[in-house]
Amino acid sequence: MKRLSLAWLLMLACAAFVGAQESAQTKEQTEPIIVWKWANFAILAVGLGYLARKHLPPFFRSRTAEIQQGITEAQKVKRDAEARAVQVEARIQKLGEEIEQFRTQSREEMRQEGERIRQETAKQLSHLEQQAQQEIEAVGKAARRELKIYAAKLALDLAGQRVSARLNAGTETMLADGFIQDLQRRESKN
Asked: Nearest to residue 53, comparing CAs of 9, 7, 19, 86?
């Protein structure tokens, strides 16, 4: 880079020298000035050619290598990005399939759960029905028992009233005597 700067500085100095020579010369000396101009131009062209030949090819080679390396890296990045895009698309497609599979599985689980709930409800209803039937039977038995007790009580009361109505002093004596005789006979047998 320093050499390139030096070459440009030399070129500017030559151009300034040529410009100074032009202004110093008069119209009468035009022929020798043209020779000096051509000589300056030749020196400048040779110097620039030398500098260009020496510095420009390595510069262009390094610049070409940098550009090719950049292109290679860009192609690699492009391939990586395309591969990632393919992977993402595959994941998205797979995700859609997984979502559909999840929906199907959820529907099946909901159907199974509904069936299980129906069966459990039917079982509970059957159990409640049996329990209600048993309670009805128990209440019926209790009501029949109470009814029998009530009927027996009424029969006893009615019998007691009839006996009381028919019982007089003579009948009481006769019953007591019969009871005593029955006891005496039993004692004699023993």
From this structure: 7
Question: How many domains, in total, are found in the chain?
Answer: 1
Three-state secondary structure readout of 81-133: HHHHHHHHHHHHHHHHHHHHHHHHHHHHHHHHHHHHHHHHHHHHHHHHHHHHH
Distance of alpha carbon 124 from alpha carbon 113, whole angstroms: 16
Residue indicated by tokens 């000096």: 36
Q: Confidence band (pLDDT; 50, 70, 90) for 163? A: confident
CA distance 131 to 172: 55
In a domain, 175, yes or no: no
The reply to whether 42 falls in a domain is yes
Whether 77 is covered by a domain: the verdict is yes
Q: Is the pLDDT of residue 149 over 60?
A: yes
Residue 26 CA, chain-centre distance (Å), reads 94
